[in-house]
Amino acid sequence: MESLLLGLAVLACPAGMGIMMWMMGRGHRQGGGQGSEKEQQIALLRAEIDQLKAERAADRTRSES
């Protein structure tokens, strides 16, 4: 009986880790919609940066004239 309990205790940690890894992987696959949302936000920020760079360049040309 003691060997059975010892065996279960030894297997509990790897089994728990495997279950947690499986659940975390499942969560990443289900959260796929968030990736496109992040990509849209990145695109908007890049467009804003480009706009600010263009305004800065225009201000420099005006001040040089």
Automatic annotation (TrEMBL):
Residues 35-62 form a coiled coil. Keywords: Coiled coil. It comes from the Bacteria. This is DUF2933 domain-containing protein. It comes from Prauserella oleivorans.
